[in-house]
Structure formats: structure tokens, C-alpha cells
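LOG
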Amino acid sequence: SENQLNRMDGIVRAALAEGAELICGGERFDRPGSFYRPTLIAGVDNASPSVREEIFGPVATFQTFETEEEAVALASHETYGLCAGLHTKDLSRAMRMTGRLQAGTVWVNRYGRSSDHILPTGGWKSSGLGKDLGREAYLANRRTKSVLIDL
């Protein structure tokens, strides 16, 4: 929508005004409709709205780290925990990190939903509205009733 496009663009403009570097994108497509170019921003810190907000558009931030502790600190969010992704050749690191990342879905060496609809999806904290798909969604949407009759 036009409102969402303007919201995304405002977040990108604010990051750039704070000194972030625009790697690519950062503007709407030159055609009818509310389409925003895929955008990558570098040089932001965790206080930036480009990092703090769930943007829900083709905007990503790029942050660097040296240690796993720094990576977890960058990935940890006080309010949101929809999904996370990490890329590594080290399976032990992948297992350590997936346990430490506070997100409803963690992808390793890939990014995106599975076509296997038995896997529940949904966020932690204030991300999402519960779980979609899988046993968790079934249980969340089930209504149970106990009836006790003394005859």
C-alpha cells in the first residue's frame, strides 16, 4: 500500500540521515503501484529504527560482528522475534547459535519458509499472532469442553 511504502521510505531516509550507507535501492520503482526497490543499508546500530522496527518490506540492514556474543547481541531484540537466519560451514556453531537466537523460526544456510506445512511458523515476543500450521496451530485453535453429568 502507499502508506506502507511511505513508512518504509521514512525509515530508510531516517537511517541515511543518521549516517547509514545506502548499498542499493532506497527508492520506489518508477511504475504505477506501491513498489519499493530491494534495499540494503549498512552502518546502522541497534538504536536505528531500520533495525528496531519490523519493516515488512524489501529493506534489510547490514551489520558486522567479530564474535558469536556480538552476533547474538545484534540479533537479539527486546520486542520482536519473528525469524532469524545464519550462514556457516560449522555445524557446531549453527547448533549453538540456533539455541541462542530468540526467534520463532531460525534458518541455517537458507532463508525462507519450507513447503512442509507440518512445521509451525510464527514469532516469539510481539512478533506475529501465535503459530500458523503444524500441531501448535491446531492446538491453539481447538476448543475443548468438559461435560460432567451425575446420573
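LOG (cont.) second protein
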Amino acid sequence: MNLPTPDPFLDVVVHDLGSEPRLCGLSVGYERGQWRYTQFADHLMEWLPEFSLTYDELEEMNHANAVSLFRKAAKIIYNTGKFKNRGEFGEILLHSVIRQVFNSIPAISKIYYKDSANDTIKGFDAVHVVDTDEGLELWIGEVKFYKDINAAIRDVIKELRLHTDTDYLRQEFALISNKIDKKWPHAEELLRLIHRNTTLDEVFKRACIPVLLTYESRTVGEHNSVCDDYTNHLKAEFGKHYKIFLDSGLPNEIIIHLILVPLERKEKLITCLDDKLNAWKHI
């Protein structure tokens, strides 16, 4: 893929791969005493083309057509209807995080394949792969772009139980299979992995679910710079939320990565993202 990957933005505060589920805690940070709303929004906008466009479009992206494709990507997000309430910003964040932290590769752009302008994209919030020495891993993500961490945990647990049901997975894999570009380098291997004749026992050995939850954080609100006190309190906050998530009754057949992204004020961030997206739409 010719499109360069945006530079890393989020700081990794906690990255525990030894626990089950695994835990990753991230920080947006501050600049001149303020939480980095504008910089965070700018970073997420850099991911728009890769999040929204097809493999063919990204392969053809160059200096001559970059602006027009950015504009198209912004319009695709807007055309999903009430995007502010429906989580597209959260899906962009999930996409960017698993790309940055876990070096994943997007398999399909689900938002591009929406059924109509007013339909929520059903199923997993991200479909990526990670190419390892042992073979291809399937990363099927869930995100809750929320203010309240307890509500985020409650709602995502319900979806995890539903989305790991055998019939649901088979239906979702069939939909994913129909949307994979056959020219994509990993198409053949992924199609074999999610084929109806491949036992789910084998799939679960090579799959994981990254679960990204945002929430308005007391620690973030009480600080204005990254310092030892901020980092220590944030780690303690992550540990508290991790335990609640762990005790909520998780599916035990598949690896889960819990990813926590604390916010200062969600509505202010959405306003900033909306402004950036609207600007790109009209360039």
C-alpha cells in the first residue's frame, strides 16, 4: 500500500501482554496546560483515507489525487447519517490504535460497504489482520466511544457474548469474505481462515478481539501535564477498570485485548472532530 502511515501520537502508559485479557492503556497528553483536543483530532483525520477507502483507491493514492481522496473519505463518514451518536469517530480511533500499537493491517473498510446512508454498520467495528511468523492473525474489534466507563464495559460485554456466538461468527465471516479485495496480498490466507469449512477451534487459535473503551477520566481532568503523579494515577485508574472488565464474565475461547483511552470531555472532542471533518469535506 502506497499510503504512508501517520506518525504515532498516543503514548502507551500500560502494555501488559502477560495477563488474560491483555491490557493496553493509552494517553493523549497535554500541551501548554491543555488536554490535546486539536492535535488528537488532527491525528485521527490523518487516518481518514485508510479507514474509509477501498484497497484499490489507496493503492492509486498519490500527490495528484490525495486531496480529492481525503475529501471523498470525509464525505463517506458524513454520509453515514447521525455520525456523532453512532460511533464512527470511535471506529476511526480503534483503527488508528491497533495500527499504531499492534502493527495491524486493515482487511476491509467496513464503512465503505454500508448498506445505505442511514444504516449503522453492523458486526465488528474493525476487521484487521496481523502478519506473524506463525501465520496470519485475525483481529476483529469492538469499540465503545463513551463518557462513562461502567456503561462502556456493560454494553461491550453484551456484544462480546453475542459476537462470539457460533451462528453470529459464521454469518459475519460470510459477509467479510464477500468484501475482501482479491488483489489484497493477504486475501487468500484470510479467506481460508474464515471459510465455512475451517473449524472455529482453529480460528480461535489465530484470532483476537481488541476492545477499545473511551471514558471521561477523573485523572485526566485533574492534571494539566504529564508527570509522575499523572502517570501513577492513570495506571491505578486503568487497573481499577481492568478488574471490573475482568469480573464481568468474558468469553474464554478467544484472546481479548482491552484498550483504554481516557478523555477529558467527550463532547468537546466530538466538536473538534466535527470541525476537522467538515473542513476536509469542503476542501
